[in-house]
Amino acid sequence: MRRSIATVCVSGTLDDKLTAAAAAGFDGIELFENDLVVSPWSPRQIRTRCAELGLSIDLYQPFRDFEAVPDTLLRANLDRAERKFDVMADLGVDTMLVCSSVSPASADDDELAAAQLSMLADRAAARGMRIAYEALAWGRHVSTWDHSWRIVQRADHPALGLCLDSFHVLSRSTELDDIAKITPGKIFFLQLADAPHLRMDVLQWSRHHRLFPGQGAFDLPEFVRLVLAAGYDGPLSLEVFNDVFRQSDPARTAVDAMRSLIALEGRLPAAPDLTGHAFTEFAVDGHSGPQLRAALRGLGFTHTGQHRTKPVELWEQNSCRIVLNSAVTSPGAAAINAFAVASADPQRSLQRAEALLAPAHPNVREPGEAELAAITAPDGTSIFVTGPDVGWRADFLSTGVTPATGTGLLVTDHLGLAQPFDHFDEAGLFYHSVLDLEHLATEEYAAPFGLMRSRAVANPDRTVRLALTVALLRRGEWAPAVADPQHVAFRTDDIVATAAALSVARLPVPENYYADLTARFALPEDFVAVLRRHGILYDRDPEGGELLHLYTPVLGGRVFFEIVERRGGYDRFGEANAPVRMAAQRHRRLSG
Amino acid sequence: MRRSIATVCVSGTLDDKLTAAAAAGFDGIELFENDLVVSPWSPRQIRTRCAELGLSIDLYQPFRDFEAVPDTLLRANLDRAERKFDVMADLGVDTMLVCSSVSPASADDDELAAAQLSMLADRAAARGMRIAYEALAWGRHVSTWDHSWRIVQRADHPALGLCLDSFHVLSRSTELDDIAKITPGKIFFLQLADAPHLRMDVLQWSRHHRLFPGQGAFDLPEFVRLVLAAGYDGPLSLEVFNDVFRQSDPARTAVDAMRSLIALEGRLPAAPDLTGHAFTEFAVDGHSGPQLRAALRGLGFTHTGQHRTKPVELWEQNSCRIVLNSAVTSPGAAAINAFAVASADPQRSLQRAEALLAPAHPNVREPGEAELAAITAPDGTSIFVTGPDVGWRADFLSTGVTPATGTGLLVTDHLGLAQPFDHFDEAGLFYHSVLDLEHLATEEYAAPFGLMRSRAVANPDRTVRLALTVALLRRGEWAPAVADPQHVAFRTDDIVATAAALSVARLPVPENYYADLTARFALPEDFVAVLRRHGILYDRDPEGGELLHLYTPVLGGRVFFEIVERRGGYDRFGEANAPVRMAAQRHRRLSG
């Protein structure tokens, strides 16, 4: 199907928006009136520019507060419409969106609405145009799709049809199955937007918090299925009002938008199973390298391999693998520069990534080295996709060092990746679609330096988990550097034994935390005493699953390690303890 | 009265928060449980630290979901309370806040609630403590202050009283007069927060959008008057949950908070009348200076004066006065470095500013020069307060240049000041309290680089107006430099004549804008033709007042000039046209 995007979805002037939409591969646009009004280009120039870019203009929008009004107002509204038809003729667009009225001047009178919309459709038809009538969720008298459909049926005019907007339809959660029964040809336009479930005024929800399909909570595949069942064959068109997208780089946002449609359409190479975290790579320098090496030793890791051709070290403990890369510049602070996931079929994983606009680029390698292609995540991290075995280890020469006893760390449990503010929702969709990781719960919590949002993604058997976090407001100058760290969490089956075996600095946990923990969870004193002794934090989910975990301080400027023990099916990340960690990391930073 | 602040109002760890509260002059704090839990200090250490800083701990908060529960839960809740009493004893705090329950386990049973709160009060009294019961606006069964008061009356326990929180009371807009009739001594604690009127879920409104008194829409002076009439003599304590304050510099936020209480108490030197904008000063350098001089000449200004001792020029046209200061560094772009307002009593204006924590600092001057003291606005701009005459002009030697004919610019109409993201609400309160400017409407609008918020402040006769703007989200890397400019608007009585007399580059206005204008306002074609010819924009308010205005392009990187003609009592700033301006300034920047 053709793919369109409303100009309101992205930031910038009309020029910025058209350039971004074309570069991302869209076929067409919905032109918002405001974007035209502020443009120095005439409607004809806009038409030419769109044609040069290979973009059709699929909809002119919106025309407001038209129907069911007294006669004098009707005449003014028809005059107003003629002016817009003039603009549309110059633009070469044939469909005008008319939203259900929010005006106090409109009457609750379906017959009057239908009659007046017919008159408008007459005028449109005379110019070879047509009217798509849409029920706004906050329309004064018409606020549901089925009500707008009754009016369109009553008008029974060939140039009058429906515009269905998934937000307006799904935010009202009316009965949907009848959408499939709409007369073929009468859905003139389909607008798609996702959204999180929010308890708020629906207009504010719509104007500020829409998301691209797959980034929210709506069942868009089912909605689109119903619309297609009604014979709709126009474009899938995104209409997303989002405060963040409105101010972020339009080129990035347009790619994110296109990815959402590709994923929604679903004609993709099936995602192979992921079988685990293969390794995590840190970029280190002369300052951070020694800190990370010392910490890894203290955690029971052994420097087992040295890359054949690059200044890259492999550190291992059971299936936990860390790579320290001194060849990559990481100005100022250590960072997770790359991570690798193991796939049952790496080639197909990469094909899927490519289809989702995340093309793989080959790793620079010497003859005889493993072919590891990387895709780039929204935060710039490289993601390698390895096979389920560890063939890539052949690139490392054995150091011959006898492996340390270890401390019981078995496998990488998850990565914690602080995301850039503008790309949090993009990241969620990226991991969901490209790696087929499912969204776990999104959480918001108060932390010492502002509110935080976290969203975890994981594969079905939980051998790959990523915890994505972002500040609810873009950080300013006040936030300390430790506010947005990245980390690797390793899993143990016995955190108390592991803790006793560690020889690495642990993040101190306040005594007040344990006092509160005892009161909150009614935990036995001796159990809390053990937690306290080892600096272990605790969380419990409503089903009784438990997390025991501990942290290192921040190392090399921006990273830390975590050790977790999951009990009883605990499937979260101890988000409730993140503020404790952040405060402690701040204190540690101030004092040490 | 004593002044307190809840630790939740400001960003950082407990250490950051206490330091900020003490530096701003608060007498006490409300200690939030989370701030204690994440602190490395024991309760006794916190008590000591507060004592060192001269801060009392006035309230420990909150204790949740206590009352009207089944017996087994009651016992657990009482045990939980005893743990918190232990903490309170160590902290040296005697009042615990208990919020009305939101738990499904609680019953709608006032008698049970009163009986159980009595039991809790017994336990508190045994330790010399007391319970302040507060109706949350979203409490499950108890959500209004009068309901909580009925329960407290029914319990009739000396250690049980009310906590009144202005947000919970005023967001429900229940009848308030009876607050004055609450039995003296039974209001144990008073929490103050302001908020804008928002159509949203009350919990979200409360948790994210509270403001300090004077920054929102609540009538807090009347509320406080009623509480004091009931004999309350405890602290005025701020409890403000605000997403921005939670992540901005706590030292700044605490001063803003203290200013809000000082202004609320109102024992201040009366604000003298302001009589107009005296001058606006730009910091210029070798790059921006020539651009601004050329523009001023083109606007009909004359370089009339040269400062006796500094590289500072005075440019004038009628009562419009611009100062170009080459002695101040302004890295990268010209900026409004200072502005001067004329006061009927400058000395008293400065005393008032000082009382509101905006101390005046003397301008560096030579003998014989006018004494101009400056106060610093939240965005760093210096504000000079001159007398109603123009005695300060004696500091400038006449250039002897014959004044140009001028273009009809009469007086400075307003300044447009883009505010730093973290300090928008602070700025509104600052100008309102320090200069006694009233808040005009707050507007939000979509602009090419993201959503914008504007708030104007003005004196009663509108001889001083400031239009403050801020991006709804802190700008990121994508936003172009022209997104947050500053400007001076001059007023004319005849903008068409003025426009014809100008010899300065005007910002081009898109033809599409005029086509839309004609449709929107049903304006006569010949009128629109005149607007079009001169690049004049148009706005009309609901009462029929009209604004005609035009802009220059951005000059010297970040500033521009505007010319306005107000007709029929138009009292706004043409915010509807700001997106047109921003897009044109962006295009101008790209192309020229």
Structure, described:
In chain A, the strands form three sheets. Chain A has a nine-stranded mixed β-sheet. The mean pLDDT of chain A is 94. In chain A, 32% of the residues lie in helices and 26% in strands. Chain A has 592 residues and is an alpha/beta fold. In chain A, helix 1 (14-23) packs across helix 10 (250-265) and helix 3 packs across helix 4. In chain A, a hairpin with a 7-residue loop joins strand 24 (546-551) and strand 25 (559-567). At the A-B interface, helix 1, helix 2, helix 4, helix 8 and helix 15 of A face helix 1, helix 2, helix 4, helix 8 and helix 15 of B.
In short:
2 copies of one chain form a homodimer. With 592 residues, chain A is α/β, with parallel strands linked by helices. Helix content of chain A is 32%, strand content 26%.
Instruction: Give the radius of gyration of chain A.
Output: 28 Å
Chain pair forming the biggest interface: A-B, 69 and 69 residues
Helical segment count of chain A: 17
The chain-level mean pLDDT of chain A equals 94
Low-confidence stretches of chain A: none
Structure summary, number of beta strands of chain A: 25
| Morphology of chain A | elongated
By secondary-structure content and strand pairing, the structural class of chain A works out as: alpha/beta
> Sheet bearing the most strands of chain A, described?
9 strands, mixed
Spatial sequence of strands, sheet with the most strands of chain A: 14-15-16-13-9-12-11-10-17
Helical proportion of chain A, percent range: 25-40%
Beta-strand percentage of chain A?
Answer: 25-35%
Indicate the multimeric state: homodimer
Distance linking N and C termini of chain A: 59 Å
